[in-house]
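User: My instructor asked us to take a sequence, write out its structure as tokens, and then describe one feature of it. I'm not sure where to start. Here is the sequence I was given:
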Amino acid sequence: MSADLHLVSSAAIGSGEIRDLVVSLGGEPQPAAGAPDVTVLVRGDGAVVVYPFPPDEPIRAAALREECARALGAPPRTRIVLEVLPGRESEWIAAEIVLAAADRWPLAIRDFGEAVITVAELYRRLARRRSGFFRPEDREAPLPGRRRTRVDEATLLLPGGVTPERFARIVRSLGGRLAPDDRADAVLERAGAWVWVRLRPPGAPPVDPSAAALHDAVLGPPPYTAVVLEIFEGTPSQLLAAELVEAAAEHWPLMVRGGSGQAMTADDVRARVAMGAADIFDP
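Assistant: Let's start with the prediction itself. The structure tokens for your sequence are:
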């Protein structure tokens, strides 16, 4: 059974703008009689149908109108309804739409339990839950992998023009999620494998003098953007981190600083994967 998620904004947003946002994420128009700007975003087994309402159409439920006004700090002007089909994948699609909309317009969110929350509260839920982040009654869980014992660390160095936001898109393209937390900015999870990602703004990360010439040849001169990977124990996590390195290397030149401080190129990482190394990032 599907569930409805209501987004309310203090901005006057045209229905066509909402349609275009969903289409930019890979959605398709699905016009209906009297509702020409309905869109649907399908990915894997998940799907979300987006129904925009015209700006300044009254919100008749007084309690909802007042709660949204408090959350927004201004009178609500536009309402959007997301019909979220059952399943975890649909929840993630809905979260992607909400966060993309929040990048453009002020938003309040009425979740599946009819509680009105802010975008900041949604980020907190995303950081603590693997699913059910639109259900306030669900018990919040710590970040995946928090209780695991052994963690390897590797640092990717990229040209300074690569912002944390651009790298975060690579993480999300692999199925990862943003997880603003005291330990991680993003989490990549797959079939029992875990990689936490910490994103750093461009700076001058320390480079071993003996490897400085190699870094200059591959990356150019500093500043560099550093991305720290916490790789949880087990071969699957090592391979998942290597997949992230490969995905990043398709976009930018990079170097990898292994757990013991050694410098590796993307080709070095590929070679260790090919040889079946048990510890890819700490030769």
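For the description part of your assignment, you could build on this observation: Confidence is low (pLDDT under 50) at residues 138-149. Try explaining in your own words what that tells you about the chain.
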